[in-house]
Amino acid sequence: MGRIFSGVQPTGNLHLGNYLGAIRNFVQLQGDYECIYCVVDLHAITLWQDPTKLRAQTREIAAAFIAAGIDPINSIIFNQSQVPAHAELAWIFNCVARMGWLNRMTQFKDKAGKHRENASVGLYVYPDLMAADILTYKATHVPVGEDQKQHLELTRDIAQKFNNDFETDFFPLTEPLIFGAATRVMSLRDGSKKMSKSEESDLSRINMTDTDDEIAKKIRKAKTDPDPLPGLDCLIENGQFEPAFERARPEAANLISIYAALAGVSLSAAIGETEGQQFSDFKRLLTDVAVEKLAPIGSEMRRLQDAPDHLDEILRDGRQRANAIAQPILQDVHQIVGFLRP
Ligand code: TRP
Questions:
Q1: Domains, the chain, with CATH or none
Q2: pLDDT tens for residues 77-113?
Q3: Is 194 known to be catalytic?
Q4: Of 63, 171, 241, 261, whose CB count within 10 A is highest?
């Protein structure tokens, strides 16, 4: 059986994009892989985090994992800072990865913005830590969205260079698991921008902890266009939207793909069902499925977050089991690199 590793940063409210793009897929992988799901708090602090909020956000991700259906008995759920092997292996990888490789990372460029000189050194070596996350468990597969593909390629480059430098085949070349038609969830206020925790208006996103009323209100206020819902000619052969359609009617494309993802049907099935409807009718349909699928997860998250001792207990158990896998691998790495044993 293959081994999955994936991580989510505790840097702010979880929204529908995190659920449909990542967490929902994590749940499905559980039958087919040994799964390790990590709240990556070490990654979070590459940008400054308020300590009190960081604690709450760490628990929020753990709660979301569990509420969405990740089973903490069969899978491992823990927070990264509690397993020292991540930071230790990351140091070794800092000495394997080349400056030139990191200079090419687009996420660093995006996050550092114009003030590169002011970015933390941690933000620069973020991808080395991510490689360490994955390889400290010798994970065979990592579920990733488009935006993380480059980091996974770097992970493979690091594994390969380590193996070459030390004449070994110790690290696997981890494969990305890309989900068929991974849902890209866009802002409810502007269909051309990604749904994001940093967009100012909370009406732009559906948070995983929103109540029924909040979900209904946000969908009611979501931006649309004056035309009725499109027919199947807005799709191309692979079942995705025609790019010209997405450019012309980004809000329609976004709401239809959210509907399809939540209802668990293909885009063509969703379009077959809604063709010719007015947005007012379609929004009622979308609200029903959104409330049906999300509200139980949100209320379970709130229940778990109200009992932090239980969550902390789950994280402690996960930490022990993660450590039990990571420690022997780290010891082998020490041996390969030439460190003396205690
Ligand atoms: N970089 C990932 C993100 O921003 C989070 C992450 C950290 C991760 N370590 C990982 C994802 C290891 C997959 C595997 O979404």
A1: 3-182+308-337 (3.40.50.620), 202-304 (1.10.240.10)
A2: 999 999 999 999 999 999 999 999 999 999 999 999 9
A3: yes
A4: 63
